[in-house]
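call fold target=Glucose-6-phosphate 1-dehydrogenase
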Amino acid sequence: MKNIPVIMIIFGGSGDLAHRKLYPALYNLYQKGLIHDHFAVIGTARRPWSHEYLQEQVIEAVKESNDNFDEKTAREFASHFYYQSHDVTDVGHYIALKELATKLDEKYHAEGNRIFYMAMAPRFFGTIATHINDQKLIGTGFNRLVIEKPFGHDLASAEKLNQEISESFDEDSVYRIDHYLGKEMIQNIMPLRMANPIVKNIWCKNYIANMQVTLAESLGVGTRGGYYETSGALRDMVQNHIFQIITLLAMPEPEGLDSDHIHQAKQELLDSLVIPTPEMVKKHFSRGQYLASNDEVEYLKADQVAPDSKVETFVAGEVNFKKGPVAGVPIYFRTGKKMKDKVSRIDIVLHHLNNLYDNAHSNNISIIIDPTSEIFFTINGKKITSEGLRRENLTYKFSKEEMAQVPDGYERLLHDVFVADRTNFTHWSELKQYWKFVDAVEDAWQEENKDLKQLERYPSGQFGTESSNHIFEKDSEHWIYR
Ligand code: BG6
């Protein structure tokens, strides 16, 4: 692997994301040689840590994520980490940061390359981008910005943030990260759809009755109540992860597998996204809040949650496109906290054939993203000893050894940032469409809230609200996974 020279500045270097995801991912890339002698990382955050303290934290993070922990390599890796205590609103701190980056650049021969990573509270993203610009933190080599979600709170704030960022970074240098795009089975959607003549040819309204995306979580909001109150399930999961999955399911076949062609195909699809009216939201969406379970209080009693909050912890809804191979096929989604299992899956429901076998079981294609990684086709066959049809799965899955090689989403995406591959990052024009959809749903809900005392509640450990079973276009449709 080519060794990339770079100084990386992580805003939010003392945070949970850096500890759990970024440091272990960087370590793996270090072991693989993508970054090695010519890199340094500056962690910056409010806390008054020292370089040594950050280095100990990095070693700890590597240890926690590695079964075969090798202390010597971890220490060598951690010696490339530096800490700069930082108040993001204080201009003086950007000057100090710039001096440290310049010094490290010389020490490590980083060729003026910089990666800025925003991994902290999103309300500071704009301020940081502005100061990177006015204090000229940009290096003389390549400059890339990695930015976590949420990118804005609605279309207007996302546009403002985009404007602030664009003063320092071209769109081509902005990497809006969505960790779902780094997941193995999400990256399998295109080959599944496009590399098999059976699947490729049935990918249309004539054969597909509907598509269903389920991202269920068994945990509640825990200590994240404060953030969640500003977000809700719609902004937390639908605006990004669910829409990215749906886009991959519904986009036309790109003319090539490079980033430009893939994004072109995505854009073509998203230009035809149907923005829901309040009537559509009323009929084909459902939202609610979880009730208490043995191990967690109900949402309304969670820490930092308003007792009369109308923020949804579960949402189900429908997406439609006017163009693309599955134009006219309803795409249903649901996601929520405190559901039965931690499961992420896609179910493609095929039409029943009106023929001799009207007693056939439904034929589906399912893609399991988490907790396992598999694809299965359900098919009908005849029962051996009695009349009727039996249903079996044809399964595509990985061995244990293969599963152990699957890199974490963050490792994969950070690798892509280092090698400047923007295929699996969200472009601004796509994000804009996602926000238009989400804003329309939010607006409809705000209207509904005026006559609503409280949201529908759902018991923990099930599949969300009762009303989510009635969002379908046809009475014959239902959730496949239940
Ligand atoms: C994050 C959300 O983006 O995705 C969290 O902010 C959620 O609320 C998480 O728990 C789910 O990701 P995964 O990979 O565990 O399914």
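return ok
The pocket of 6-O-phosphono-beta-D-glucopyranose is lined by residues 217, 236, 344, 370 (CB under 6 Å). The CA atoms of residues 24 and 66 lie 8 Å apart.
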